[in-house]
Amino acid sequence: MASTVPAPHDQPNVHSIPGPVPSLPVPSLQAPNPQGLDPVLLDVLACPADHHAPLRLGSPDDPAAPNLTCTECGRVFPIRDGIPVLLLDEATSSHGGPSLDSAGR
Ligand SMILES: [Zn+2]
């Protein structure tokens, strides 16, 4: 016959969390870049053009400039008050070429 195995109530039926839960320090909102832009935000931003290429901080001339530069078409988008203005109308071409949409005003 099967011997009855007495369940030893040695261990409590609760999951004991090993050690104190490390409380994540509240990330100080000091931006790691001079543009004051959240790097996470930068990660999800993309060029509004059809290629939706990723953007990188700064302008080709000045990496610390408050701009975002498209890695594909080279459009430079301004950052105003920490808000990137991803509008083709607001973009300037880093190439200086006249090929951008030059809609007359
Ligand atoms: Zn682009």
What does this protein look like?
- The protein has 105 residues and is mostly beta strands.
- It has a domain of 55 residues: N-terminal domain of TfIIb (Single Sheet).
- 6% of the residues lie in helices and 16% in strands.
- The chain is built from one helix and five strands, in the order αβββββ.
- Strands 1, 2, 3, 4 and 5 form a five-stranded antiparallel β-sheet that branches.
- The longest helix has 6 residues.
- The radius of gyration is 27 Å and the shape is elongated.
- The termini are far apart.
- Zinc ion (ZN) binds next to loops.
- The site of zinc ion has 8 residues, from loops.
List keywords for this structure.
105 residues; mainly beta; N-terminal domain of TfIIb; five-stranded antiparallel β-sheet; 1 helix; 16% strand; elongated; binds zinc ion
Short description:
With 105 residues, the chain is mostly beta strands. The chain is built from 1 helix and 5 strands, in the order αβββββ.
Write the layout of secondary structure elements.
Elements: H1 39-44, E1 55-57, E2 67-70, E3 75-80, E4 83-84, E5 92-93
Antiparallel strand pairs: 1-2, 2-3, 3-4, 3-5
Bound molecules: zinc ion.
Zinc ion (ZN) binds near residues 47, 49, 51, 70 and 75.
On the 0 to 100 scale, the average pLDDT is 78
Order of helices and strands: HEEEEE
How many strands appear in the DSSP assignment? 5
Distance between the termini: 95 Å
CATH-derived topology of one domain: N-terminal domain of TfIIb
Q: Write down the Rg.
A: 27 Å
How many DSSP H or I helices? 1
Which CATH architecture of one domain is right? Answer: Single Sheet
> Biggest sheet, in brief?
5 strands, antiparallel
The bound ligands are: zinc ion
Name of the CATH first level of one domain: Mainly Beta
Judged by helices, strands and strand pairing, the structural class is mainly beta
> Uncertain regions: pLDDT < 50 for 5+ in a row?
none
- Based on Cα principal axes, name the global outline: elongated
Bin the helical content: under 10%
